[in-house]
Design goal:
Number of strands: 36
Structural class: alpha+beta
Length: about 650
């Protein structure tokens, strides 16, 4: 039994877990003597070693960072914490702390009616407190082997203790030996079994006296004090930094709020400017169109009246009235011709679009986009002569070219398809490098997408979707064009395995041409229907916006064979152009007025012709550098052409304009 003089004061800080900062539960001691809740230690070990090598055999102490190994390293890391010894001393202190939350009075004295006699001893076995007299007269007579703690001076305000000697966790015997070689405190059995060959083994009392009389304890205490002061300085410094960070965060949040207000104000102004410009342009063009419309309407009504009156007068044989109407009719016809001639000079289709700048990264003048105002010359409707006049009267000039070869390309480019989107971006198919490439209409590279199969002709499906015909395996690849990115939407394989060359889109179906001269209607689920079979490759297809037919280029070189054909939804075909001016027809496109543009691969030219093929003219020839022109895309009064001449020209798209 342990008795003695007044014990030192307890520091209940040691009863807290350094990890959860709460009272220790199932306290586990590491070799460095730092103590933690078993659950907290297990969680810490698992997190500390997560993501590291499975072969890790140790972990750092959460407090001093000393590397520590479990007894059984092969066991799962979640079980390592259970292997460390439970700190019995800490458990006793916790039990004492719980028991000391009430005033410490002698239990036997309270039984006899003396309720306020202070207790000086606590029997842990009986969990009863005694004054000195009751301890001798009652407890010690019957209980000689109990562990007794001297709790002299403990009350609800100040707690002191003297604890019995701690016991070995494995053998339940008092810890009386200390091995300097292994820094190990143990009992008789432990020392005898594991440390009898060690050179520096002494009793705990001897080691304590040596520490007390030597400088080691003082040095350690000084180092602890100095270290604690350093840690205190670091804690204060971290607190100061945290406060500074909090202030910086508040300042930054306010700055962000202020910036948002400025951005909102700027965007409001930009939105107003863009809106005002849109409204102004619309009102101006609307006014011009209304004036022209009223002028045409007045002349139309007058001519209809004259025509109807002339029919009536002829029936009535009124000579004088007929002469007057004839003269008036002639004047109105001349006025109509003059008006058509005047309007033909400036007759355009007007477009007013809101264009958003791709990949906008700054709040500049175009943050809200810009209003793109375009006027595209076109034929006066209902006038065949107007179409001839329109075609022959406009000249062509090259306004630029842009490079389409990307750093990742391994081969010279071979562009078999070009398509323009309403968002002012262009998609090209590069057959040699198995890619689709995305550019702005000014030639700025945006993105690329590798395709399964060799990509050939391209067509527009809707405002942000294109489709490409592919060769080996034959089929169609549908591609989304959004946020300046290309992404594969779906794949359609030809059920008969035919290789696809030309493609267009009509009434929710794809119309594709093959290397066998066949033209199929293909649904999105891959169902194919043969529409017509030509005698040679159908390299390119396009859709006539005026008549709704499909225009097909047929790659013939023999004079008299078909070069361009028109295929209706009812499977009727009409030859529009025979081989002559154009040989080896490949790329084909059509403008809003129904004029057809064809690339002659063998004839080295680009021609323009009326929708019925009666009027044909060469726009570009070999003298303009049109050596093996292949793909063409028409956008308003501009068109884009690729060539496959086998030179560096292959790596460029050339841009031309009609004026």
């Amino acid at each position: 039994m342990a008795e003695g003089g007044p014990p030192p004061e307890l520091d209940f800080h040691f009863l807290e877990c350094p990890i959860c900062l709460e009272r220790l539960r199932q306290p586990k001691s590491l070799p460095c003597l730092h103590c933690f809740c078993q659950e907290c230690l297990g969680t810490y070990i698992t997190k500390e070693l997560s993501g590291k090598m499975v072969s890790a055999t140790s972990f750092p102490c959460p407090v001093c960072r000393r590397m520590t190994s479990p007894v059984n390293q092969a066991e799962a890391k979640e079980k390592w914490a259970e292997q460390f010894p439970t700190n019995a001393v800490i458990q006793e202190l916790i039990q004492l702390k719980v028991g000391s939350s009430e005033p410490l009075y002698c239990k036997p004295c309270q039984t006899r009616g003396n309720l306020t006699i202070p207790a000086k001893f606590w029997c842990k076995t009986m969990d009863v407190k005694f004054c000195e007299t009751c301890k001798i007269q009652h407890h010690d007579i019957m209980h000689n082997d109990c562990d007794i703690l001297n709790i002299t001076g403990y009350d609800s305000r100040k707690k002191k203790q003297e604890k019995s000697a701690p016991k070995c966790d494995q053998h339940d015997e008092k810890l009386v030996w200390y091995c300097e070689d292994h820094k190990y405190l143990g009992g008789n059995i432990c020392v005898f079994k594991d440390h009898r060959r060690c050179e520096e083994v002494s009793t705990a009392t001897e080691y304590f006296q040596m520490l007390k009389t030597g400088s080691q304890l003082a040095d350690m205490q000084a180092a602890l004090k100095n270290g604690a002061e350093v840690m205190d300085s670091l804690v204060k410094d971290f607190d100061e930094q945290l406060q500074t960070m909090i202030q910086n965060q508040e300042i930054a949040l306010q700055s962000i709020t202020d910036l948002r207000q400025k951005v909102d104000k700027r965007l409001d102004k930009l939105q107003k400017d863009v809106t005002d410009k849109l409204v102004m342009l619309f009102k101006e063009e609307k006014g011009n169109m209304e004036v022209s419309s009223r002028q045409c309407e007045r002349l139309m009504n007058s001519m209809l009246n004259t025509w109807k009156s002339s029919v009536t007068v002829v029936e009535g044989n009124d000579a004088i009235e007929m002469v007057v109407l004839y003269q008036r009719g002639q004047a109105e016809v001349e006025s109509c011709k003059a008006l058509v001639t005047e309007m033909r000079k400036s007759f355009t289709s007007v477009s007013i679009n809101h264009h958003i700048v791709p990949r906008l990264v700054t709040i500049g003048d175009e943050a809200m986009g810009k209003i793109v105002f375009g006027k595209q010359p076109r034929c006066i409707p209902g006038s065949q002569s107007g179409s001839t006049y329109h075609m022959s009267d406009r000249r062509v000039k090259e306004i630029g070219k842009f490079k389409i070869k990307s750093p990742s390309d391994k081969e010279r480019c071979f562009v078999c398809g070009v398509v323009c989107l309403p968002s002012d971006v262009i998609v090209v198919s590069d057959q040699n490098n198995n890619k689709l490439k995305l550019f702005t209409d000014k030639g700025q590279y945006l993105d690329e997408l590798t395709t399964q199969g060799y990509p050939y002709d391209l067509c527009l499906v809707n405002n942000n979707t294109v489709a490409v015909a592919v060769y080996s395996p034959g089929g169609v690849r549908v591609v989304k064009v959004e946020d300046s990115k290309l992404s594969l939407s779906s794949e359609i394989n030809m059920p008969n395995g035919n290789n696809c060359l030309g493609i267009t889109h009509r009434d929710g179906r794809f119309i594709v041409g093959t290397d066998e001269g066949e033209v199929y209607s293909v649904t999105h689920d891959g169902t194919a229907e043969l529409l017509y079979k030509y005698n040679n490759n159908c390299w390119s297809l396009t859709q006539d916006p005026v008549k709704g037919d499909t225009l097909v280029s047929v790659n013939n070189d023999t004079t008299g064979d078909v070069a361009v054909s028109r295929l209706s939804a009812e499977k009727r075909h009409t030859d529009v152009m025979k081989v002559g001016v154009v040989r080896g027809a490949v790329g084909i496109d059509v403008d809003r007025e129904g004029n057809i543009y064809v690339c002659g691969d063998s004839s080295h030219n680009v021609v323009q012709m009326s929708g019925d093929g009666t009027h044909v003219r060469e726009l570009l020839t070999s003298s303009d550098g049109m050596i093996y022109p292949w793909a063409i895309a028409v956008r308003g009064d501009r068109f884009f052409v690729s060539t496959i001449s086998g030179t560096d020209d292959n790596n460029y798209i050339r841009v031309f304009q009609l004026y």
